[in-house]
Amino acid sequence: MKALVPVKRVIDYNVKPRVKADGSGVDLSNVKMSMNPFDEIAVEQAIRLKEAGKIDEIVAVSIGPAKAQETLRTALAMGADSAVLVETDETVEPLAVAKILKAVAAEVEPGLIILGKQAIDDDSNQTGQMLAALMDLPQGTFASKVEVEGDHVSVTREVDGGLETVKLSVPAIITTDLRLNEPRYASLPNIMKAKKKPLGTKTPADYGVDIAPRLKTLTVAEPPVRQAGVKVADVDELVAKLKAMGVA
Amino acid sequence: MKTLVYVDHDNANLGDATLATVTAASKLGEVHLLVAGAGCAAVGEAAAKIAGVGKVHVADDAAYEHQLAENVAPLIAGLMDAHDAVLFPATTTGKNIAPRVAALLDVMQISDILSVEGEKTFTRPIYAGNAIATVESTDAKLVITVRGTAFDKAEASGGSAEIEAVASTGDAGKSSFVGAEIAKSERPELTSAKIIVSGGRALKDAETFEATIMPLADKFGAGVGASRAAVDAGYVPNDYQVGQTGKIVAPEVYIAIGISGAIQHLAGMKDSKTIIAINKDEDAPIFQVADIGLVADLYQAVPELMEKL
Ligand SMILES: Cc1cc2nc3c(=O)[nH]c(=O)nc-3n(C[C@H](O)[C@H](O)[C@H](O)COP(=O)(O)OP(=O)(O)OC[C@H]3O[C@@H](n4cnc5c(N)ncnc54)[C@H](O)[C@@H]3O)c2cc1C
Ligand SMILES: Nc1ncnc2c1ncn2[C@@H]1O[C@H](COP(=O)(O)O)[C@@H](O)[C@H]1O
């Protein structure tokens, strides 16, 4: 069975985002961009399932600008077999991403679609669940363990109170949480090999998907800044402060 | 506007996150609640007592026992002919179900709202809370998740809403619940604790975390949190993680011990009223948000603090 892995190109998680002065968004010019960290975990999981003989082919897909090819090359260098870029310079909301992914999945016919739980730019945490609804498939979100057993997949999920395990029929949608695995780095030979792997390009229109946004962003502002605090010299002073606050 | 609030519960009790969601919904219009569960009559009754609630729909069926999204989403979608908006607490249960409902309704969800600015306008954090977007929906129906720390809790008593049974949409037959490991703790829950003591990578291992952080937390009657690094290294379970991709907390006092203050961690705690940090690196970013900072080795400072409190 095949795995389809959607990967998003986002601001690198080490970069502190800056809001544009005109309030139109976050300034992404000259900012380091990388694969969304949860999607690296998704790619890694697909590769591990392939190494375990549960998956025989991995297709990575990204919806975004031409530069998202770099993100797909990273997925290929890690171990994906082929990639599809659905190219657009527009911002594509999770609902439209899910519709495009549904159309891609109709061509690829994957047994598992493994997404990140959340893109660290929009922080939506929606796409996987939406895709599951559109395809009428079961969903195992926030996964910290995935085990394929015949025509089922067992997914351990990170929930507010701890962990929960669900059993899903395949095909199924999975979204990754941080503890699922530690993604590998692509080796230099694999980066070279990845350049020769197939990477196709499409557009949202090829799939007949309307990507017009449903949400209008009116403004983007800086969050309120905290007043600079004080440093205390020693534990005695800290205890005095705690007492003054009435917590000790 | 008629709103429906999804009640997060364990078939016995409903949580604080639901009460905050009711407050958010009441800013939009009339509030109805949905309790989907199995043997959940007590939750329905508790829900009916929440102040300001007009009606409580109860869907009591084995298919809803574990609130599997595959089974619950069609139930909610079916109730949306009679409602203009559905709001979920941004708990793992809410975050799992809401987008599935949104897609069934062909609506773009608004995640993790911080405020209600108008009938269809909301603020929400993006980029780990480093920016706040004001967004307006153009969809016919609203599907929203609500950040619990951003809204006051509705009064849990004083209401007397009518309870109405809703027919089950049944088991979708795609998924089943296998089991859960839900930690039982005597300590206050993170999302409602007044004081939180959190530990980071500097706590070395599970034993050291236990021996250093827990006694201090007990002294304050505090909840215990952790950074991702501490969770990944196995010092504490996943449900302790505070941050962009963990729990969002805003206690009266947050005490960060041996935590550097990465943006992903700050995203989960920087709305705390007072932040106290103990870190041996005076340049640690946590000091930029801390109201009270102590530059010290935690293995000297924490025992001394225990002694002097
Ligand atoms: C996609 C993604 C999501 C993430 N989500 C989260 C999240 O939700 N929550 C989260 O917390 N992180 C998250 N992270 C991780 C985050 O980037 C940081 O790596 C993490 O918060 C660091 O944890 P830490 O502060 O405990 O460790 P470190 O950064 O290693 O800091 C340890 C600190 O302890 C101090 N220290 C060491 N020894 C002592 C001592 N003896 N006494 C006093 N101080 C000492 C050091 O000076 C240092 O400041 C995420 C990362 C990614 C990529
Ligand atoms: N533009 C995109 N291209 C490819 N995958 C995406 C895109 N947007 C979202 N995803 C996938 O959906 C997950 C959740 O994103 P979100 O719902 O935006 O938080 C991500 O981790 C990706 O796996």
TrEMBL record, chain A:
Protein name: Electron transfer flavoprotein subunit beta
Gene3D superfamilies: HUPs
Family, similarity comment: Belongs to the ETF beta-subunit/FixA family.
Classification via SMART domains: ETF (SM00893)
GO biological process terms, semicolon-separated: carboxylic acid catabolic process
Classification via InterPro entries: ET-Flavoprotein_bsu_CS (IPR000049), ETF_a/b_N (IPR014730), ETF_b (IPR012255), ETF_beta_N (IPR033948), Rossmann-like_a/b/a_fold (IPR014729)
Keywords: Electron transport, Transport
Gene: etfB
Cofactor(s) it depends on: AMP
Electron transfer flavoprotein alpha/beta-subunit N-terminal domain residues: 23-211
